[in-house]
Amino acid sequence: MFELITTIAAVLPMDIDITPNDSGLPGIAQLRTIVGAVMTVGLILSVLALIISAIVWGFGSNSSNPHLAGRGKLGVLISCGAAVICGASVTLINFFWNVGQQV
Questions:
Q1: Are 79 and 49 in contact (CB under 8 A)?
Q2: Which regions span the lipid bilayer (predicted)?
Q3: What angle do CA 83, 92, 73 make, to 5 degrees?
Q4: How far apart, in whole angstroms, are the C-alpha atoms of residue 97 and residue 94?
Q5: Could you tell me which residues come within 8 angstroms of residue 28 by beta carbon, excluding any fewer than 6 positions away?
Q6: Is the pTM of the predicted complex or chain greater than 0.85?
Q7: Buried b (16+ CB within 10 A) or exposed e, 10-48
Q8: What are the backbone dihedrals phi and psi of residue 12, each rounded to the nearest 5 degrees, phi first?
Q9: Under a CB-based contact definition with an 8 Å cutoff, are residues 60 and 68 in contact?
């Protein structure tokens, strides 16, 4: 029994070193282009949502409709949050990747 455990320990690698590579699969460059385009679309839609929410907020405030004004304010906050997440997504992923590498 002890020999089996020693043999298994000798066969198993002690240090596993796996890192992402750019040449592992075909189409990685095209996938990066697609992800960049989706980020651009997300930012454009965030700007559109911000404009529409600001208009709704203004209409709600000028027509003394607190529900509509509140929905406009919430839309402004959500669209700004979406733009921050779209813009910072690469930095966030890199940060958490680096944190995961230190574990």
A1: yes
A2: 34-60, 72-97
A3: 25
A4: 5
A5: 22
A6: no
A7: eeeeeeeeeeeeeeeeeeeeeeeeeeeeeeeebeeebee
A8: -70, 135
A9: yes
Token readout for 11 is 């066969």
Per-residue pLDDT reduced to its tens digit, 62-95: 999 999 999 999 999 999 999 999 999 999 999 9
> For the chain, what are the domain ranges?
29-98
For residues 55 and 73, the answer to whether their CB atoms sit within 8 Å is no
Give the Cα separation of 15 and 52 in Å (integer): 54
- Is the Cβ–Cβ distance between 60 and 72 less than 8 Å? yes
Alpha carbon distance 21, 17 (integer Å):
12
